[in-house]
Amino acid sequence: MTDHTLGQFIRKHRERLLPQDVGLPALGRRRTPGLRREELAQLCGVSPTWLTWIEQGRPVTASTDMLARLTDALRLSAAERQYLFALAGRVDPAGAADNRSQHADAQAIIAHLLTPAYVLDRAWNAVAWNPAAADLFVGWLDAASTPLPNLLRYTFLCPAARHLIAPWEERARRLVAEFRNDCGRHAADPDIRDLVAELSHADPTFARFWQNYDVVPREGGRRDFLHPTKGPLRFMQTTWQAATQRDLKLVVLVAEPDA
């Protein structure tokens, strides 16, 4: 998105508000509808010049605190707030609470599934999973030692994964290519950057796969496992994205009848 788009968005929503909507007196005749820039600047605690520049699309810096105040002053909805922060290239500090709510909703849903199911966030941390998934993914979801067990850490750093996932190298190579495609627009974010750096340092195979710059879409299909107690297992995997939070992915594995 461009700075011009951000400025246009702010201006359009400023023009939709009346002074009385935000507790200001409606003084004098108005040549244009809605709030004046000076009035919005007063509500947000910024200079009218700064607001003029951002509406004109000039490259000015908008902090997360400033964007939050702008959101409140413009009476933006949750979806509009999310869009504003995305246009500004900022992470909404209120998003963490929203994420926890989404995770809880996902956990409540998949808990009723009998087949293995788990939910990944944008860094491929498992944020929710059901007992069937914990039973399948030995060394990952069955004994998670951190609040957010990561699929890539498990695949490359846990010895149990190399025995469970079959064939391991083929699946691991594709997993890295899928992750590169999936995290493209977030590649510079600290959580993604730090994860890649950690795995590249810890595992030469991951480093080699990452440096290949392979990019493939995340797709379903047959998944084979060699479970330590149940022996060979075969599933068909399907992945869905959440409509209200595109960074969340629901992964479901359904056992094949002849597995």
From TrEMBL:
Q: Indicate the segments forming the HTH cro/C1-type domain, all copies.
A: 9-81
The record's section on InterPro entries has:
Cro/C1-type_HTH, Lambda_DNA-bd_dom_sf, MLTR_LBD
GO terms for MF: DNA binding
CDD domains in the record: HTH_XRE
Out of the domains of life, which is the source? Bacteria
Pfam assignment, any one: MLTR_LBD
The cross-references to PANTHER family, in alphabetical order and at most eight, read:
BLL4672 PROTEIN (PTHR35010:SF2), BLL4672 PROTEIN-RELATED (PTHR35010)
Q: What is this protein called?
A: Helix-turn-helix domain-containing protein
Q: What organism, scientifically named, is this protein from?
A: Pigmentiphaga aceris
